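For the sake of clarity, the format in which proteins appear in this thesis is described at this point. The fold follows as a row of integers, each naming the local backbone shape at the matching residue. One such record is shown here in full, so that the layout can be seen directly:
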Amino acid sequence: MTKYDIAIIGGGNAALCAAMTAAEAGAKVVILEAAPKPYRGGNSRHTRNFRCMHSGPLGPLVDDYSEDEYMADLLKVTDGKTDEALARLAIRTSEECLPWMQSHGVRFQPPLSGTLSLARTNAFFMGGGKGLVNAYYRTAERLGVDVLYEAAVTHLELESDRITRVDYSHEGSKHSIEPKAVIVASGGFQADIDWLTRAWGPSARNFLIRGTPYNRGVVLADLLEQGVHSVGDADQCHAVAIDGRAPKYDGGIVTRLDCVPFSIVVNKNADRFYDEGEDVWPKRYAIWGRLVAAQPDQIGYVIIDAKSLDLFMPSVFPPLKSDTLDGLAEKMALPADKLRATVNQFNEACGDTSGFHPTELDGVATTGLTPPKTNWARPITQPPFYGYSLRTGVTFTYLGLRVDENAQCSTETGPIQNLWAAGETMAGSILGQGYLAGFGMTIGTVFGRIAGREAAAYAN
């Protein structure tokens, strides 16, 4: 049986960055990926872009995006709940990551149109996340990395300050290996609905899981039970409002709806409950999952009219449509009188719309309305009218493994000599709450490379 220097648990972006870096440093590496080959890559195959600091144009990125501006964007969405040293490490290192990604097979394309407003801050992958994942697997194979698919890790044996054994099941039988070093890059626990329910309460049963069904937190739970330091809260997560018709698992990024800034959003009682125009969508889309989760039956409804239909990226499921608000209410099972009253009240609160600008904060706001709409507030008057249902779509959970600047894990007695973590399983170190578009891929790339470097140095 092959003797491995490093075992990497997980098969997404962070795992692959670690594997390539370690292999280039001379280590013999195996990736243990729980998913079958067609579903390899974890949540990374659903991604589109990477948020990147840069001084001046870089690859597909225009202008510049400074460390301080990037950090301010992060502080805004997390409300300051972040480890600033680790956050700045991720931000600063992101600039060198983009050319590294290109040298390892990733190709970039101009940003997508729509409401994302990311041409300056985020580099988009040609072929999306699946293109990135496939490119990395090809590069890893050339570097001699072995990959086992449908290899579900069940236990890491922690003795004193070292991992001595990795247990996993593969092809119907149980196996154990004893690598010199281990990197955990196996994501959060969001696909375990029972664990989500323990954290959130019964409402979590109504949540949809945007990403892979294979991120069930088995290794995370195993390590936490053995006293490995944790970070983050079990009920904090990257949760967005997605199309209510999305599948329970693995709907991916295409189920996200980008129409909220140009809409009003109501609950099942046809009441508005939050400012739809608070900020540009990349800085606010990740709060809407939690907002919808707090509504009756964990559901919301988007209402727009004909003049807004082409302002956002098309949805994967067509919207419900009617020539009248009453007809739309009937199709959405909303109380028609109440919806009509809510829309009329909103329309009356709208003022001068001549400054409307769909891709930047335009100050076109309501007056005397609670909750207000502070940007893009135009009356909903032009038929046909369109509607979508919204459900909470969980991308990944923030309870994870605490790491230091070397991506190393620890217990009460100090660092674990041969255990590192990267990606979503340690992202709670930096994301205490909220989310910034493309930042998960930044964390995975930066800390994957660090973990690969450190594990290879230890193994060698």
About this structure: The domain at 239-393 is CATH 3.90.700.10 (Flavocytochrome C3; Chain A, domain 1).
